[in-house]
Sequence to fold (616 residues):
Amino acid sequence: MVSDQSNQQRPAECIAAVVVTYNRRALLERTLAGIAGGLLTPDVVIIVNNASTDSTPDYLESLDYELEADIVHLPENVGGAGGFTVGIDRALVRHRADLVWVMDDDTEPTEGTLSEAYRAWANYSPVKAERPAVVASKVVWTNGEDHPMNTMRTMFAAGAERTAQAAAVGARPIRSASFVSILMDGAAMRATELPLADFFIWNDDFEYTTRLIQHSQGIATERSVAVHNTKTFGTTDTAPGPRFYHDVRNKLWVFCARRTLAPHEKLLYGGSTARLWASTLLGTDDKKIYSGYFLNGLKDALAGYRSNSEVLKDIYQLETPNLAEIVRAQYRDARDFSLLMSVYRGDTPQNLKAALNSNTVEQTLPPTQVVLVQDGPVTQEVAEVIADFKISAPMPVEHIELAENHGLAAALREGLSACAYDIVARADADDISVPERFEHQIPLVADGRFDVLGSAMYEFSLDPSTPDALRHVATGSRRISEVIPRRNPMLHPTVVFRRSAVQAVGSYIELPGAEDYWLWARMDKAGFILGNLPDPLVKYRVSTAYTRRGGISALRKDIDVQRRLYSGNVVSPVRFAKNMGIRGLYRLAPEKIRTKAFRWMTGRTPQGIERKGDNV
Fold:
């Protein structure tokens, strides 16, 4: 738990503040003073000057600021949306921020704005994978009253569990937030695209924050307070002026062209928006002008939005599109690597001991470090195996104990942070690696040929020396990219990867049964190189695997996975429907048929039977 702000230590996380400014020099000074005067201050303040024509450029050129400032002068005004796109890109790639705090130049932070937002984020969960993607501040006007323009609505049908968890840190669950003092989780931001610069103004924050919160958590805390120094108190809904055009165009993009809202949410928000537009058109005295705004917004919405690269061409070169190249340029050709394993209450002492030995002392190329994450309480027998291994292991062992079981994604994300080396080998606590596994994989990852490298594997039920089947894999990065929309092309217990590459796309994210699949999909989309070796380097204990792969519960997990892939633009609507049709039949089939079908679909052959070709 993070202590009260008066005793708060400097966080381990890198925090970057992003301020977008345009022709508000006096207000910008108050914004920067508020940031610097906080009980907690960011590590860097990124100031994006949106081609201001007042004295702002001169002020920033001579800025004497107590915090590190990264000032970006854009040659053209690209609106708040473009400005935040640039600032967030810079925060995530250049400054490697763990948390990003954003605001307009008319936002004035108070003493506890950042510290209280950080406290709510850090205390929400003991593991980072479960912390909110967005923490919104309470926004007040100059008279201290809640600002109606930035009052976050409590999430509809949030549920008792989510509501209680937010209340425990003095917050409430929300579905969206505005770019007026919100603290965002860098890992969640890396797992999705940047804000859409073509929105220019209005609803860019709505689209981006609903995207972040879609598969995570969003909260608003009353304890973090910021002042919004607008000219008037109230919303601009009744008389938005030319911005009405942007509201129509951008909202239609959100509802029709984006995948950030579920169908019922589109109906809910869409109905509310339609009523507001009708009220604006009926209530204005300038019906002809506002009708023009509406029709132009509708026309341009139908034309679709441009990519960030198109919008910012000849204005600013984003670094996120070249993320893989940037990360790969920093690799070192070293053979040292960490072994990352997670153990939980379902593991047995015999299996764990065999897995530890096969991945360390029995390897021809043993790991330099072992990181073992204990995901919640384990049996006394398993605890004894861990204790004995820590004493006998010929390499350093980092043992991370989580008080409660949080799931594989959370455990591995915590473990990655403790890995001393950029090359990380994964292994499960009940599988066996062949002695030459790392000797085959590590050099290929170390020399930069692959960012993730897996292999084929044997399947066994009782005795690892007598496998039941051989599971083949797709090889070649292009073939793997083609397979990803249909199924998981990598076998998680066999992979070796670059930690920096995994963390560059947001690391492991909770998605029961498919944490790795979602990770590989994001890495492939970002341009990282995935590969597989055709030789089986791991012996996988199937035990009850095929039983667990059937039934309604497994089908529900499939639906969650496909929804995630769809919202992440990995699969098309047609592919989504095809995948669900195939998986629906498979999950509900009898176990004997399901076993044969799964082995056929995923390239398994009975042990001893050759299968030609590597493009399974």
